[in-house]
Amino acid sequence: MGTSIPVVKAILQANQAVASENRAAFDRVGLLAVNLMAAPGAGKTSLILAALEHLPPALRVGVIEGDIASTLDAERIAARGIPVVQINTGGACHLDAPMIRSALSHLPLENLDLLFIENVGNLICPAEFDLGAHLNIVIASVPEGHDKPYKYPGMFQKADGVVLNKADLLGFLDFDLEAFRHGLRILRPDVPLFIVSCRTGQGMEAWVEWLLEHRRQQRERHGP
Amino acid sequence: MHELAITQGILSVVLETAEAAGARRVLAIDLTVGALTGYVDDSIRFYFDLLSRGTSAEGAILRIRREPGEGHCQTCGARFPVEPPVLPTCPFCGSPQIRITGGTRCMVERIEVEDGDEHSGCEGDPPGQPGRGL
Q1: A142: left (phi over 0), alpha (psi -120 to 50) or beta
Q2: Any alpha helices (H) in A130-203, and if so which ranges?
Q3: Do A14 and B2 touch (CB under 8 A)?
Q4: Taking the domain A13-222, which CATH number applies?
Q5: A176 part of contact set with chain B, CB < 8 Å
Q6: Which residues 75-94 of B have a C-beta within 8 angstroms of A?
Q7: To 10 degrees, the CA torsion angle through B87, B102, B105, B108?
Q8: Is the ipTM here above 0.85?
Q9: Domain ranges, ordered by start, for chain A
Q10: What are the residue ranges spanned by the domains of chain B?
Q11: CA triplet A92, A158, A101: central angle to 5 degrees?
């Protein structure tokens, strides 16, 4: 008979180790890293662009763009004069911590205050891969429907904050906001929800202020 | 699709453990997969067969235990297993005051190996054949 060996190891421990290194690299320079996760088309790039409109001009922002292929999103960011690194995952449906580590060497980390990491559009696997970000944000959008927390509970359980985008469509679609809120509440009782429209700018102040508060806390803990 | 990376993680934990134990071959793997992760057992098996080829885990039996999430009703106190899609209310009393936890773990719990034995060297053994070590 074979010998039985207890293991009890999380399968992504190798990723976890690199994620911790990434987090330490961010902390050394007092940088707040924000991982944006969402389905394709929910508005990840738009949320970054809209945030740039509302963040203080002195705040130095960098972006890592994850995509299966193409540099379209990175070009939209670069057009604003923001340092951006494109990661093409070549088919993989999520970013992982080693990809972020490779990208960091292309960014002037010590000259940044806030780093947005735009994950690959997907509501399942990005949740599993810690990148080393300080905040994991899930962006949902009104046209996707209010049932997303019920159907993708793993993703919403990992969220430190949830942004509901395309709120300007709330009056036109059968989106039950209370059912959406309830789904968040049963999975992650205290998670903050930001109801925004990147198109109209609605709700952006509260979202940006929340980010800035985290940035202040991060700087108090680690910053120069 | 995402099961590919997950299965790579499973395989690397298994092979590291087997090597550290000086095992010649991995016979079976006990895996716990949280029901709220969205991982599909058949996909994990499919990728495992592909990725394990030529390794000491080739042909190992993959035993997957689904671990449901746990619902806890704040009204009636019931605890109940949860599978997606998550229901918005308690299945016992209908209260919406529920909390859902767990169901997102993915762990290699245990592996069963054939011990290393310098006299055996039967690389061509069919999968699952009992080992001769110890």
Answers
A1: alpha
A2: 148-151, 153-157, 177-187
A3: no
A4: 3.40.50.300
A5: no
A6: 82, 84-88
A7: -110
A8: no
A9: 13-222
A10: 3-69+103-115
A11: 45
What pLDDT, in 10s, does the model give residues B35-79? 998 889 999 999 999 999 999 999 999 999 999 999 999 999 999
The CATH class of B3-69+103-115 is: alpha beta
Burial class of residue B36 (count of CB atoms within 10 Å of its CB; 0-12, 13-18, 19+): buried
Contact A44, A158 (CB under 8 A): no
By the 10 Å C-beta count (0-12 exposed, 13-18 middle, 19+ buried), A189 is classed as exposed
**Closest to A62 measured CA to CA, from A48, A73, A72:** A48
CB atoms < 10 A from the CB of A184, how many? 22
Q: Which chain A residues have a beta carbon less than 8 Å from that of B14? A: 7
Question: In this complex, is the C-beta atom of B109 within 8 Å of any C-beta atom belonging to chain A?
Answer: yes
Asked whether the beta carbons of A26 and A134 are under 8 A apart, the reply is yes
Q: State both tokens at A90.
A: 């070549």
- Shortest Cα–Cα distance, B30 to chain A (Å): 9
